[in-house]
Design a protein that fits this description.
The chain has 180 residues and is mainly α. It has six helices and four strands. 63% of the residues lie in helices and 6% in strands. Helix 2 crosses helix 3, helix 2 packs antiparallel against helix 4 and helix 2 runs antiparallel to helix 6. The radius of gyration is 23 Å and the shape is globular.
Length: 180
């Protein structure tokens, strides 16, 4: 073995991370990690010795983070649309134009929630991600109930579908990352 090859012990939290000289995750580290999990190996040797800032949990959480960024983008687009040009957005979905201030209040509230989403994504607040999934499911159910009771127009179901799709994406990604 060459000078750059070192032996590292695995902790219960996972492997000591390494990276090739190209500064990206090494697949052999993940292979050794799963070998450790399955066969309870105490040590494993890797092929490179440069510390890697990305852990296995961060690799698994990437899809969760991507789904939350998609939710953030949805909130920015919907909030900005309802705040600055509500009648244009409503006409796209075939809904009646409104003159009330409430649609703009909804847009402002969506933008405020978007800032919360961004802060929570940047700090990887897992309990918030979990709570947002259930809150988005509740929101979808509420929109569907409005349509079924005749209070809202049918295009509200499009918003419920978008919100529900993003919630399901986050839910599935969190289940795969063992965070749900």
């Amino acid at each position: 073995m060459g000078k750059n090859v070192r032996s590292r012990r695995f902790s219960r939290a996972g492997p000591v991370n390494f990276c090739c000289k190209k500064n990206r995750p090494c697949l052999h580290v993940l292979r050794y990690y799963y070998f450790y999990k399955i066969f309870a190996a105490k040590t494993a040797k890797t092929l490179c010795a440069v510390p890697l800032p990305v852990t296995l949990s961060k690799i698994k959480m990437k899809n969760v983070t991507n789904s939350m960024y998609a939710q953030f983008g949805y909130m920015i687009i919907a909030g900005g649309g309802f705040l600055f040009m509500p009648n244009f957005v409503l006409s796209i979905f075939g809904m009646q134009p409104v003159d009330d201030v409430w649609i703009r209040v909804l847009g402002l509230l969506a933008l405020v929630f978007a800032t919360y989403y961004l802060t929570m994504i940047q700090n990887s607040v897992i309990p918030y991600f979990r709570a947002s999934v259930w809150g988005r499911y509740l929101f979808c159910g509420g929109l569907a109930a409005f349509v079924l009771l005749g209070i809202g127009e049918k295009p509200l179901l499009l918003f419920a579908a978008a919100e529900g799709g993003l919630a399901v994406w986050t839910h599935v990604a969190m289940k795969r990352a063992n965070q749900m």
